[in-house]
Amino acid sequence: xxxxxxxxxxxxxxxxxxxxxxxxxxxxxxxxxxxxxxxxxxxxxxxxxxxxxxxxxxxxxxxxxxxxxxxxxxxxxxxxxxxxxxxxxxxxxxxxxxxxxxxxxxxxxxxxxxxxxxxxxxxxxxxxxxxxxxxxxxxxxxxxxxxxxxxxxxxxxxxxxxxxxxxxxxxxxxxxxxxxxxxxxxxxxxxxxxxxxxxxxxxxxxxxxxxxxxxxxxxxxxxxxxxxxxxxxxxxxxxxxxxxxxxxxxxxxxxxxxxxxxxxxxxxxxxxxxxxxxxxxxxxxxxxxxxxxxxxxxxxxxxxxxxxxxxxxxxxxxxxxxxxxxxxxxxxxxxx
Length: 336
Fold this sequence. Notes:
The protein is of the alpha+beta class. The protein is built from 15 helices and nine strands. It has helices at 48-52, 103-108, 110-113, 128-136, 149-157, 163-177, 196-200, 204-209, 214-225, 227-231, 238-245, 253-263, 277-286, 293-300, 307-317, and strands at 4-5, 9-10, 36-41, 64-66, 72-78, 81-90, 93-99, 179-180, 191-192. Strands 1, 2, 3, 4, 5, 6 and 7 form a seven-stranded antiparallel beta sheet that branches. A two-stranded antiparallel sheet has the order 8-9. A hairpin with a 2-residue loop joins strand 5 and strand 6. The radius of gyration is 20 Å and the shape is globular.
């Protein structure tokens, strides 16, 4: 059962605010618009922080905010245009308000975003650690945004660098080339990421300023030029979706899995090629912190079809090995 909607309503228009100009003099358009609202009752426990957490790319992600009042804000570039979504838990209901051209698209897909298509009962724990972790996190569901590029681009930025480096690059590029999010978001600093054409026009020196090397920027440029084909992957089964993304040079199994976990709610999209995950899984399930991808996949074999959920629960369990090596130092791509 996917839960139930309350009727959608329109609220009074908010004052219009002109946004700052884009590089080159193009206008960003109004910051506020008439909001739409909708309520949804999930079919079971739902923890917004756990469900939406994978969308947050660092503490200063310009597309995602958690406000002081406990509401969650998300700015997206939908097929119908930019949109801002505000979510709040009200007892057993989720209250959603959306602004911008993409507001209706965001609200119509609210259940899918919050895991209505997910089936937590399909997961059968084979290890006590995972049974306990699931019991302690009854509100965990796997989200589905239905948007590929907004998860693909930050995943490409995270290839082979520290998370801090990737988060900084995402933050700088979205703030510089994106647009202020629709709605009352000025105090939050919320931005919508650039559209494919704008990504394709970012000059080489701006990638350099964000410390993004030529390999990653070239991968993003190839991806945005194939944006319509890549977005089709949001409606595909996992094997076909993985194959579609990996047709783009520079997008391999790590990046495609990280993307489809978010865009498709793919419960079996296990991340291979990760620097830390095999050791975490090996430590949690076999007390072997030096596991590689092969051993990780062997340990996760009993969870076929649910391997991504298994790794989420392992990470939430807190059973991770103590760090033995120094953190990877950020790289400077400036020539010597």
